[in-house]
Structure formats: C-alpha cells, structure tokens
Amino acid sequence: MIDLIHVTKHFGDAVAVDDISLSVARGELCVLVGTSGCGKSTTLRMINRLIEHSEGEIHIDGQQIREFREESLRRRMGYAIQSTGLFPHWTVARNIGLVPRLLKWPAARIQARVEELMALLGLDLEEFADKYPHQLSGGQAQRVGVARALAADPDILLMDEPFGALDPLTREGLQEELRELQGRLEKTIVFVTHDMDEALRLADHLVVMHQGRIKQQGRPLELLREPADAFVESLLGGEGRGLKEAALLPVSQRMLPLGPRLLARERIGQQASLREALSLMLWRHAERLTVVDDDDLPVGELSLRRLVGVRSDD
Amino acid sequence: MTECRRLVVPLCWLSLLLAATLGMGQLEGLFRVIEPDSRQVIYDRAGFLTLLGRHLSVVGVAAVLAILIGVGAAIAVTRERGRDFLPLVSQLASMGQTFPPVAVLALAVPVLGFGTLPIIVALLLYGLLPIVRNTLAGILGIEASVREAARGMGMSSGQILRQVELPLAAPVILAGIRTSVTINIATAAIGATVGASNLGDPIISGIVNGNTAYVIQGALLIGLLAISVDSLFSRLPSPGGR
Lengths: 314, 242
Ligand SMILES: Nc1ncnc2c1ncn2[C@@H]1O[C@H](COP(=O)(O)OP(=O)(O)OP(=O)(O)O)[C@@H](O)[C@H]1O
Ligand SMILES: [Mg+2]
Description:
Chain A is of the alpha/beta class. Chain A has helices at residues 40-47, 70-75, 92-96, 98-102, 107-120, 125-128, 138-150, 168-185, 196-202, 220-225, 230-235, 241-248, 274-284, 304-307, and strands spanning 2-11, 14-24, 29-34, 55-60, 63-64, 77-81, 156-160, 188-192, 205-210, 213-218, 267-269, 288-292, 298-303. The mean pLDDT of chain B is 87. Adenosine-5'-triphosphate binds at residues 11, 14, 16, 34, 36-42 of chain A. Chain B: It is found in: Cell membrane.
C-alpha cells in the first residue's frame, strides 16, 4: 500500500532521513519510534508530500506519489498531528467537516458524518459542536484533530503523536478505538509516537529509527526478543523488555487446562495480558490464578511457573 | 439590537461632524470673539460640506489604492514564490513612512501638476506602511501548525489564503487600515498647499491671512472626521467569529 524505496531527505547539507526502505501493507498499522530528531515526522510528511523527498521513490498503491496532484493525494490520507493545527476561527464541527467539504460532499452528509465522528471520539455533540478550539482542553482538541483526520474516511492515516496530550485512560481508550477501527475498516496507518508501550500495543509493524536511518523493523515481539543492537534493545526498554513482552501476550497462551486441584481463589480473564496476571499475583501474593472466560466461567489455570515460561508444571 | 448599540458612539460622532459642517455659520458670534478684527469670520470660499466631501474622496481613493497595493504586496511576498522579496517590501514600506508627505508633494507637483493627484500619491505612499506591516504580521503570525494542517488536509494555496490566512489575519489587517486612514485624514490637509481643495483649505487660508477662526474651523472638522472614522472602524465586527 505504502512503499518507501531508498528514500533520503536532505535539508541543505543536513541529512534528516538517510536511505530508508519501508513497506506498509494494506490494513497494517505501522509505528515509527526513535529518539527525538531521528526523522520520524519527516518520514511521515514525505508520504503526503508536505516535504518532498530528495532521493528514492515513494509509492502509494504502486503509483509514485509525484504522479498524483498534491491536493488529491492529501485528501485521501488523514493527517493528525500533536499540536492539532485546528483552525482557531472555525467551530469544532466545521473543523471536523473540513475534508468532506473540500471533497464537495452534500451538506447533509457532512453533518451526519461529523455527528458520527464526534460520537466515536466521545465528544458530546450538544456541548462541543459549536465550541471554538481555544475553548477545548488539550485532550479534547486532539480528539477533534483525530476526528478531522478520519472525516472523509481515508484509507490511509498518517498520525504524528496524535495522543500526546491525553491522560492515560483516554489514551488507552483511543488506542483501542484506533485498533478496532483499523481492524474493521482496513485502514493503513503510519503512526509516530514516543511512548514505547503505545507503540508495542498498537503496532503490527514496528520501525525503530535512529539518526535518519532505520535500525530495525518487524513485528513487535520479534524486535523485543531479538533486538538488532544495543540501541534497539535499550530503546525497547532494556531490562524492562520482559514486562513489555508480557503485556503483549494473552493469558490464554500460557494457561493449562483445569486440573484436579481446587480452583485458585483469584481469577483473571483469558484475554488479559500476562503482565496483568503477574501484577495480580504480586498484589494478592498468589502463585496460582483461575482463568475465566467472558462469562466468568473457569476455563483453565495459570501458575507462576507457567507464567514465567517454565515448560513443565510442577 | 446589540448591532444598533455598538453603533451608538460612532453615530454620535458622525452627527456631531454633520452638525458642525452644516451649522458652522450659526457659530459666527463665537468666532467673532476669537477674531474680532477680521471682516469675515466664517470661511466661505467653498461650502464646508463640499470641502468635507472632497476631503473624504481624496482620503478614500488613497485608502482604496493603499489597501489594494498594500494587502496585495503583503500577500504576494508571503507566498512561496514571493518569499525572496519579503525583506525588500517591508523595507520599502517603512521608507514610505519616513519620507515626509510634504516632501512627496514637493517632488510630485512638478511631475503630476497641481491638484488632487499629487496629494493622492503622497497619502498613498504614507498610508502604505501600516497596511503592509500589519498584513505581513497578521499572515506571518499564524501558527505554523495551522498552516501545516491546512496543507496536510489537502487545501489548495488559494483555499488556504481565503479560508485560513485572510480570516485569521483580518483583525490585524483592519487595525492597519484604521491607522492608515486615520493618519491620512489629518495628513490630507496639506493637500490644500498644492491646490487640492479640501478641509485643509480653511487652515491654510487662515494661516496665510492671519485668521485664526478659519484655522479652527478646518481643524475642528478634520478632528471630528478623524474621530468619527476611527470610532466606526473600532465597531467593525471582527470576522473570524472570535
Ligand atoms: N524544515 C526543516 N528544515 C531543516 N531541517 C529540518 C526541517 N524539518 C526537520 N529538520 C531536521 O530534520 C531532522 C529530523 O526531524 P524530524 O522532525 O523528522 O524529527 P522527529 O523524529 O520527528 O523528532 P521528534 O521526535 O522530536 O518529533 C531534525 O534534525 C530536524 O532538525
Ligand atoms: Mg516529530
């Protein structure tokens, strides 16, 4: 869907992005991480031509992006940035309806779409539709920014730290929303973040950048287990990687079928992560947990030994 | 209702101006006190209403030209293609202001002859700076993220200019126009020295003939005109909805 082939960007003598190659498949969520100034935003902006790449080729659906009209290229890609860039003289509703209006949708359809998106992002229509951006909190503004990016239902989304100003709860809610959306609607997303937990939770395809180059890319678990070098290892959390990996694995993967023994008192859902299971064990001083399904019926058990990955139980 | 209330102050000034223009003759007794020795105490070589009309039209024409040229130039040099000329244009505009209008008149008369043309040129040059400066400030002051989002959403440069840059810069641009016009209402009086007849006439004639009453009449009307226009500007609804 999106292919970057040996792409380089110079600003004068400085090289911001240095010979990167990257393919994002349709329906894939690709997350770029790396130290500040490593070229993540530049990479993103080259895809919608806010910045023209100096060398190499960028393709969308197999077609070079330079063959598209700049405006039409951008209108089919949602773009959300940390500083939101909401128009201060427009209401929330008008801001969200920007791209549909550019695409000349009929007014009634725009209105319906705006209402739908505000509901999706948890913005009360009555309360927010007629507010101006300066009347919003940072988090509300970011949600409006995301809604605006989604408005014309683009098949590609480019997001540059879109959840940066949100509290952990709202942030997790939106991350889930984004995953769900992307799974359901087959969106292809390139997402930049500084938050490694966010990156690991969201990514199908994780790209670690450093000084304009791609250090390593692949599935999050691959990178956690086999970091290419010390930089990737430390960026992914160094010694903390065990917990980060545990956060990605569901309890169902390590649990054992119910045995003859008495059920353990503490229960955990089978969709919960191993990290949550470990936390519960630490908190309750329990070595065993009963795993339950969505209806709270026991389906298995998880011991500390199994959880940490010791093969034979007892 | 509120629309009417916001216009109360400017309307007061305007009616005061009109009353003074039409009723100056009624004040003959007052001006006699100021100027007891002169045979004539009310300026009558032309009606005050005519002078007011000419004054307004000179300032108006100069203002329209200054707005077209000033806003146009500022827009041009803030486009990607015109960026190279940005320093030049802001310098030119400030030179226009440091150059005294009298000097412009002196230079323009030999070329353009006597009459209203040289004063329009002088006012145009003089009024350009506040407009150019404010338009530049207004457009360049827009947050970079707003422009980035506008481009990133796929707006064309024309759409960005019309829907984003101009509405956001409008209050600042309007303030520049207001300064420019108000200054020029006063400055236009010197046009009387080169034969452009306007509210400067009674002042110049009063100075030449030593008739203080004439000077006061001209100055009073110019002052009232400047205040009326300024207060009209201050009540203009600011586009942009904030
Ligand atoms: N318009 C520009 N002109 C010159 N240099 C630029 C420009 N934009 C970015 N750079 C440089 O390119 C490099 C990469 O910048 P970029 O914004 O892509 O970093 P980033 O990875 O997004 O960083 P952060 O995590 O801090 O947002 C930086 O060294 C930056 O200074
Ligand atoms: Mg960045």
